[in-house]
């Protein structure tokens, strides 16, 4: 039997147990919040909306309502859903006790066509690249009575920081029995303190770039392969920069391409290597990279996109993991991934 549906098929989990599949999950999120509040239990809700991910979709209420095609409809519904959750927290009287953080795991995909793609504004390229369009995302922290409304911070952060930050705002300590990559950004949230820290841009196991202050150094450049590009798939449509948005993996480790993101957020104009600015920036960045590499500890891969055993082996109508279809044995391998 082949299970298929024209509707999105979104698995919803309670801890490690899948509890159902839904086409839109924000009503289930509201229900979860309600029951946790009624039971006077603290809760953690990770709500990952996928409507803006290809294939883009929106419910009937929002279809055709935006001026930006199907993608705009999906964003409109996403905005509505977030608003419903915030309003629910207020209605239940727990808004001042609930820390909400909104962000994305990557920049908008720009290769899916005019009706399926988002926009990254002035930033170069998009999802699946380590240019700013692929890595720089919006971030909004909401906690009435604790985070001053309307505050804008220039702090650099990563999604990895959410672990340490969430533990801190909950009054818990970060585990000291392992290396933790993220930082506690609660001082930024409460006092708008700026924490000086570098940001490393990885693609797979390769450090492609690093940012230190306003400077970003590219040690490798690559958008997508010539094979894909020649098939009409372009990760940087209308934004190609010679020697930067390369379609082969270009190494620059001996002489990194350095950009000042304050003056050039679109990464279009590399700083000349003969200038004092370049040499000063390279000196700072090199020291940061050397320290970073000395502290790296190889991790054991837990997931592999080519390992069929990591898929959700429960078709619609069978909502218990491992109860209906037996998953194949996990056999991770380093597969051919063109991105």
UniProtKB/TrEMBL annotation:
SUPFAM superfamilies: Alkaline phosphatase-like. GO terms for molecular function: arylsulfatase activity. Pfam families: Sulfatase, Sulfatase_C. Its cofactor is Ca(2+). It comes from the Eukaryota. Residues 28-171 form the Sulfatase N-terminal domain. Belongs to the sulfatase family. PANTHER family: ARYLSULFATASE FAMILY MEMBER, N-ACETYLGALACTOSAMINE-6-SULFATASE. This is Galactosamine (N-acetyl)-6-sulfatase. The lineage of its organism: Eukaryota, Metazoa, Chordata, Craniata, Vertebrata.
């Amino acid at each position: 039997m082949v299970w298929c549906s024209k509707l999105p098929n979104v698995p919803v989990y309670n801890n490690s147990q899948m509890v159902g599949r839904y086409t839109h999950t924000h009503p289930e999120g509201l229900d979860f919040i309600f029951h946790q509040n009624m039971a006077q239990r603290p809760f953690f809700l990770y709500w990952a909306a996928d409507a803006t991910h290809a294939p883009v979709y929106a419910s009937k209420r929002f279809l055709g309502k935006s001026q930006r095609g199907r993608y705009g409809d999906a964003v409109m519904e996403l905005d509505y859903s977030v608003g419903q959750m915030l309003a629910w927290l207020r209605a239940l009287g727990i808004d001042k006790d609930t820390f909400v953080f909104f962000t994305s795991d990557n920049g908008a995909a720009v290769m899916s066509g005019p009706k399926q793609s988002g926009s990254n504004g002035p930033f170069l390229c998009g999802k699946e690249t380590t240019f700013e369009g692929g890595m720089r995302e919006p971030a909004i922290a909401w906690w009435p009575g604790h985070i001053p409304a309307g505050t804008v911070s220039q702090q650099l952060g990563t999604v990895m920081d959410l672990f340490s930050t969430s533990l801190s705002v909950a009054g818990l300590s970060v585990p000291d029995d392992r290396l933790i990559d993220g930082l506690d950004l609660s001082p930024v949230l409460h006092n708008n303190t700026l924490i000086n820290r570098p940001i490393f841009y990885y693609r797979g196991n390769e450090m492609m770039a690093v940012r230190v202050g306003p400077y970003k150094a590219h040690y490798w450049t690559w958008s997508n392969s010539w094979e894909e590009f020649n098939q009409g798939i372009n990760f940087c449509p209308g934004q190609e920069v010679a020697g930067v948005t390369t379609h082969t993996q270009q190494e620059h480790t001996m002489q990194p391409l350095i950009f000042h993101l304050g003056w050039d957020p679109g990464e279009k104009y590399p700083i000349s290597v003969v200038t004092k600015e370049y040499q000063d920036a390279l000196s700072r960045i090199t020291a940061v990279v050397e320290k970073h590499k000395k502290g790296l500890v190889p991790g054991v891969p837990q997931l592999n996109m080519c390992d069929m055993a990591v898929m959700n082996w429960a078709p619609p109508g069978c909502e218990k993991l491992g109860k209906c279809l037996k998953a194949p044995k996990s056999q991770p391998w380093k597969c051919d991934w063109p991105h």
